[in-house]
């Protein structure tokens, strides 16, 4: 049995990319593994985000976890900020990370290159993420391709700590789904489908209604080659094939065969309907759960208590290893 840790940031509305890239696997993972799923709300503070928007997003993400079938009795489901050990271990991670290796993180470099205002929090983001994972002795961390660099630095920090202070942390393994790990935009299939998207036609949100989903797929970019094949020359068509294959649990080749002799309108229409069938029930259940915030808060509290039991044990061990005096 593996210990699996995964989290999403409530910086925006959850997208089809979030769902197919990582979340779709979670329900199956919890059957035979020890799973911990978090709303990574502390990570959201690395960007400028409206207070009400953040609060709404936290509730929505937590409700979505439940709506998609995560079992709060079998798995630990909680909000990161409700477990104070995350922030405490992050400081230990900072103190065991070299400035140079932190500076090489792609996310930080990208923001800096765009002349954006970059906070110290964004610079320290990978160390907080490392602490998130190591707190729970996670062995497997499902991530998108763009997060693999953060798993690598997590392993580097853990290795350095273990070498200096003695075996303390398990080295986690990052796992990327073979198909659909990175879902691209609908009108710009050269860019990842992201929560921070400015063009809403480029992204499918979990909370989109059926008609909105159909409309967005109808406007999806294809090309003029009049063929349905997965290839670099057809990024839009390839993206639609990835979505279709990922939802239906089939290979790209099988998806191509299914659409033989069909046109782009058929492709867009069928992909839209399979997306509606997949995420429609999740959306409806999420909206139902959001009507009872007290119920969600109670489950947040229970999840945080369960997570804290593990986190406290890990942090006590870490403090003892580095020489801090415990008065627990």
Overview in brief:
By secondary structure, this protein is mainly alpha-helical. Helix content is 55%, strand content 7%. The protein has 14 helices and five strands.
Structural class: mainly alpha
Report the uncertain regions. Answer: none
Average pLDDT rating: 92
Strand order of the largest sheet: 1-2-3
Q: Tell me the major beta sheet.
A: 3 strands, parallel
Which descriptor suits the 3D outline?
globular
Strand % is 5-15%
End-to-end CA span? 31 Å
The Cα radius of gyration reads 21 Å
| H/E topology pattern | EHEHHEHHHHHEHEHHHHH
Query: Helix fraction?
Result: 40-55%
* Number of alpha- plus pi-helical segments: 14
Number of strand segments: 5
Task: Tell me what you see in this structure.
It is built from 14 helices and 5 strands. It is mostly helical and 328 residues long. Strands 1-2-3 form a 3-stranded parallel sheet. The chain has a two-stranded parallel ribbon with strand order 4-5. Helix 1 links the parallel strand 1 and strand 2 (34-39). Helix 4 (85-94) packs parallel to helix 14 and helix 11 (235-248) crosses helix 12. The protein is globular, with a radius of gyration of 21 Å. The mean pLDDT is 92.
Strand and helix layout:
Blueprint: E1 3-8, H1 16-32, E2 34-39, H2 41-44, H3 51-67, E3 76-79, H4 85-94, H5 99-103, H6 106-113, H7 120-123, H8 125-134, E4 140-142, H9 148-165, E5 173-175, H10 210-218, H11 235-248, H12 252-258, H13 264-289, H14 293-322
Parallel strand pairs: 1-2, 2-3, 4-5
């Amino acid at each position: 049995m593996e210990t699996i840790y995964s989290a999403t940031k409530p910086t925006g509305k959850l997208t089809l990319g979030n769902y197919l890239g990582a979340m779709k696997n979670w329900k199956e993972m919890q059957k035979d593994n020890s799973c911990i799923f978090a709303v990574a709300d502390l990570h959201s503070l690395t960007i400028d985000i409206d207070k009400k928007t953040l609060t709404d997003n936290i509730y929505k993400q937590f409700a979505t976890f439940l709506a998609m079938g995560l079992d709060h009795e079998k798995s630990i489901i909680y909000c990161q900020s409700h477990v104070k050990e995350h922030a405490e271990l992050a400081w230990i991670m900072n103190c065991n990370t070299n400035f140079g290796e932190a500076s090489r993180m792609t996310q930080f470099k990208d923001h800096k290159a765009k002349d954006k205002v970059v906070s110290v929090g964004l610079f320290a983001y990978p160390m907080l993420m490392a602490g998130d994972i190591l707190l729970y002795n996670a062995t497997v961390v499902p991530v998108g391709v763009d997060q693999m660099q953060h798993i690598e630095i997590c392993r580097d920090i853990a290795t350095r700590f273990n070498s200096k202070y003695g075996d303390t942390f398990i080295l986690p393994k990052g796992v990327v789904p073979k198909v659909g790990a990175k879902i691209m935009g609908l009108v710009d299939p050269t860019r990842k489908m992201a929560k921070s998207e400015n063009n809403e036609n480029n992204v499918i949100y979990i909370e989109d209604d059926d008609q909105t989903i159909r409309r967005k797929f109808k406007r999806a970019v294809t090309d003029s080659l009049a063929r349905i094949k997965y290839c670099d020359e057809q990024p839009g068509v390839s993206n639609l094939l990835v979505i279709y294959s990922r939802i239906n649990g089939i290979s790209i080749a099988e998806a191509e065969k299914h659409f033989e002799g069909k046109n782009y309108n058929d492709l867009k229409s069928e992909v839209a309907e399979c997306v509606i069938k997949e995420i429609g029930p999740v959306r409806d259940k999420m909206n139902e759960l959001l009507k009872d915030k007290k119920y969600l808060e109670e489950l947040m509290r229970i999840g945080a208590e369960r997570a804290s039991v593990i986190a406290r044990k890990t942090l006590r061990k870490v403090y003892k290893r580095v020489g801090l005096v415990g008065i627990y």
